Every structure is written in C-alpha cells, then in structure tokens.
Amino acid sequence: MDFTQRELRAAERRIEAQSDPHEQLRIARQQAEGYRNFLSSLTAVLTAVFVLKGQEDLSKLDSVPRWTVVGLLISGFVTLIVASWLGVLATDGRPGEESWSEPGRFLEGEVRRTRRIWRLVEWARWLAVAGVVCVAAAVITTWVAPSS
To answer: In this structure, what is the dihedral angle of CA atoms 89, 92, 96, 97, given to the nearest 10 degrees?
Structure first.
C-alpha cells in the first residue's frame, strides 16, 4: 500500500500522542471501563444460566456432586465478584489517591497508574475466566451427576 506524505505525518502525530503518558492513562481507563461492564454482564448472564438451566433442587443430587456444585458456585461467584471489584479499581482508582503539583512527579504518577490499571485488568480477566469455568462446571455437574 502506498500512503501520501500527509497520511504518514498524521500517523506519526497519532503515534506520538499514544506514547504520551496522559493518553496512555486515558486509553487504559477506557479499556478498564469496558472490562468492568463486561464482567458485570457476564456475572448476570451466568447467574441467569444457572438459575434457568441448572437443576432446580440440588438436594436431589447425591452428596458428593451436591457439595461439588455448591463449592464450584461459591468459588465462581466469589471469583467473579473479585474480578468485578478489580475492574472498578482499575477504572475509578482508590478514593484519596495522592496527586502531585510538580510536573515530573505528576507524569511519573500517570505512568505508575497506567501500569497499575493494566495489572488490575489482567488479573480481572483471568479471574473472570476462572469464575466462568467454575460456574459452567457447576451447571454441567447438575446435568450429569447422579441424583437420588
């Protein structure tokens, strides 16, 4: 593909803008908001799936499968709650976070905050996967486990 000089200069300006700590922080927050919304939706959908597709009465399951389902559900939903909380922390930060009036320290703070957001989002993503696996395993267990 051939690009005009004007297009190449515009691309260079966008690249420079993306390397700016303030812009990276804005992008990180925007992505964290998307993950937070995704985790909220995911938790709601999984709850609905379990309620609609899981066995209505767990007491009909034999003892081991019943406690396996209960353990998986507790683990799954706790994991999803923690993932959602990490998404909120990534998006909104903690109340009373220190702010600086000196430009150098301010920029360093933005760089640290951006890294923290990426770390929190990464943890939230993996915890969401673990939560989904736990809830899905619980639903599948209710389908296939022997009942009394």
So the answer is: 80
Cβ-based burial of 130 (10 A; exposed 0-12, middle 13-18, buried ≥19): middle
pLDDT digits (tens, 9 = 90+) for 82-111: 988 888 888 776 666 666 666 777 777 778
Per-residue pLDDT tens over the stretch 25-69: 787 878 778 777 777 777 777 777 666 665 567 777 888 888 998
CA distances for 105 relative to 20, 22, 116, 118, 122, angstroms: 15, 13, 16, 20, 26
